[in-house]
């Protein structure tokens, strides 16, 4: 049985060489066989299947419809086999490139500090960090692991929960001295409210008013595609912003930023997930990175 499987694999590889070269002689050069050996191999496949795969002429050959179907299936089978063997081989010593996307502040404060230990543990893996608060393309294969906040849209991606973060409305003492304190959420319509420039699932800022949660649209003359820029703008007294608590912990502790409307804070949290393409053929280098993040970060704790 083992020899038969090995022969089938060799047959598929040789048949694909014939399909690509368009001749037995070209496939023979590619495969290291004689043209007559290639011809006999194709005939053997045709005899076993009971169909004609190749139309032969004195000058060239072409695949029949059945030949095209066989070539398509052979490519898929050989690709799956190679991918599976690579994934299994990597389990002993994971290696290769892992592309990781994270929000700017969260990546700088929580993900990047974990990288040195991971690289020491897996010296054959290279980590390529992409820091941006915009959503990265995992499904398209451009990123292996993305750290995402908030509700996850329906998709075919896999996700593992790493934690969660609360959110607060903040401004600098200088801004509040000049423009006054908002005493209730509706007062924000008279303030410069700075938000993210990219589209988010929530269409405004949520508040708890009269026993129910409301969504308040906000507007201002400054926006940014990352939280760190919004923090800096708030520190400079440009306006009011609402951010994950991991962005602003040190600034709140030092008094450089002031938390606002705490009585109306709905206490909402954003879940933090590692998002990736899962499945049995997920590369070992990606799997061990996910496991490492879970080891270091997993839990219900709030950042």
UniProtKB/TrEMBL annotation:
GO terms for biological process: DNA-templated transcription. Pfam families: HTH_1 (PF00126), LysR_substrate (PF03466). One of its GO terms (molecular function) is DNA-binding transcription factor activity. This is DNA-binding transcriptional LysR family regulator. The keyword DNA-binding applies. Keywords: DNA-binding, Transcription, Transcription regulation. Coiled coil: none annotated. The keyword Transcription applies. Residues 7-64 form the HTH lysR-type domain. Gene3D superfamilies: 3.40.190.290, Winged helix-like DNA-binding domain superfamily/Winged helix DNA-binding domain. InterPro entries: LysR-type_TF_proteobact-type, LysR_HTH_N, LysR_subst-bd, WH-like_DNA-bd_sf, WH_DNA-bd_sf. Belongs to the LysR transcriptional regulatory family.
């Amino acid at each position: 049985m083992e020899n038969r499987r090995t022969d089938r694999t060799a047959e598929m590889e040789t048949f694909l060489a014939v399909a690509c070269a368009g001749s037995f002689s070209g496939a023979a050069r590619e495969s290291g066989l004689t043209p007559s050996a290639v011809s006999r191999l194709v005939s053997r496949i045709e005899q076993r299947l009971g169909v004609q795969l190749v139309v032969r002429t004195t000058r060239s050959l072409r695949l029949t419809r059945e030949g095209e179907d066989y070539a398509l299936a052979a490519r898929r089978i050989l690709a799956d086999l190679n991918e599976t063997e690579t994934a299994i081989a990597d389990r002993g010593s994971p290696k290769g490139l892992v592309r990781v996307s994270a929000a700017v502040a969260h990546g700088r404060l929580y993900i990047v500090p974990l990288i040195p230990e991971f690289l020491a543990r897996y010296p054959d893996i290279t980590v390529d960090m992409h820091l941006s608060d915009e959503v990265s393309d995992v499904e398209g294969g451009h990123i292996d692991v993305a750290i995402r906040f908030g509700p996850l849209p329906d998709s075919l991606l896999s996700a593992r929960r790493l934690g969660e973060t609360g959110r607060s409305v903040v401004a600098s003492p200088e801004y509040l001295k000049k423009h006054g304190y908002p005493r209730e959420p509706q007062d924000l319509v008279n303030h410069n409210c700075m938000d993210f420039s990219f589209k988010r699932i929530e269409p405004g800022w949520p508040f708890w008013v009269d026993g129910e949660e409301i969504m308040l649209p906000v507007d201002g003359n400054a926006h940014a595609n990352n939280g760190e820029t919004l923090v800096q703008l708030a520190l400079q007294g440009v306006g009011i912003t609402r951010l994950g608590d991991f962005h602003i912990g040190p600034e709140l502790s030092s008094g450089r930023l002031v938390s606002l409307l705490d009585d109306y804070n709905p206490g909402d949290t954003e879940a933090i997930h590692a998002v990736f393409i899962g499945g049995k053929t997920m590369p070992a280098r990606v799997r061990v990175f996910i496991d490492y993040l879970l080891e270091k970060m997993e839990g219900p704790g709030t950042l």
